[in-house]
């Protein structure tokens, strides 16, 4: 390939990325916020708040709401509008929060899966793990671990 062909391909991909962020992030934010707010209302109902599995999903939705409100607007400004972030610490903090929230949300959904497995297990020693007290202890631990794993970003 000639240098001009490479440059035009790079410019094409740059424009494609910018348009994807410009027109893709607002609907994703609107749908994500709506879905996670509905999840918060659903999982805080009196019949569900006493379920250990629902506590994991509630925490995951809250973490995802935080991620959407903190990270996606910065992505929209930086990549959609083409305004570069010149503050190194702002970039690091935004990157850290986004990746920690992604990881914490995944951890919490994994814990909800393990909780469902434990609650449906035939052995009593495994079913004991599926209770509200353990869920309320594991949620902050999972968030702390997710933040600690990504601490190298800062």
Features:
154 residues, Rhopdopsin 7-helix transmembrane proteins
Offer a quick outline of the entry.
The protein is an all-alpha fold. It has five helices and no strands.
Write the layout of secondary structure elements.
Layout: H1 3-43, H2 52-80, H3 88-119, H4 124-127, H5 132-149
Description:
The protein is mainly alpha-helical and 154 residues long. It has one domain (3-153): Rhodopsin 7-helix transmembrane proteins (Rhopdopsin 7-helix transmembrane proteins). Helices cover 81% and strands 0% of the residues. α1 packs antiparallel against α2, α2 packs antiparallel against α3 (88-119) and α3 packs antiparallel against α5 (132-149). The longest helix is centred in the N-terminal third of the chain and has 41 residues, at 3-43. It is elongated. The protein starts with a helix and ends in a 5-residue tail after the last helix. 22% of the residues are buried. The mean pLDDT is 89.
């Amino acid at each position: 390939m000639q240098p001009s062909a490479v440059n035009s391909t790079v410019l094409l991909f740059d424009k494609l990325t910018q348009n994807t962020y410009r027109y893709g992030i607002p609907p994703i934010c609107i749908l994500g916020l709506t879905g996670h707010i509905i999840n918060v209302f659903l999982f805080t109902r009196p019949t569900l708040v006493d379920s250990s599995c629902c506590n994991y999903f509630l925490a995951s939705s809250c973490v995802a709401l935080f991620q959407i409100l903190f990270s996606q607007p910065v992505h929209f400004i930086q990549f959609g509008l083409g305004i570069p972030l010149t503050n190194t610490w702002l970039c690091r903090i935004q990157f850290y929060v986004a990746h920690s929230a992604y990881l914490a949300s995944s951890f919490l959904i994994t814990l909800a899966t393990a909780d469902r497995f434990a609650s449906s297990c035939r052995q009593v020693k495994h079913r004991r793990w599926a209770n509200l007290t353990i869920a309320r202890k594991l949620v902050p631990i999972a968030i702390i671990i997710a933040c600690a794993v990504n601490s190298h970003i800062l």
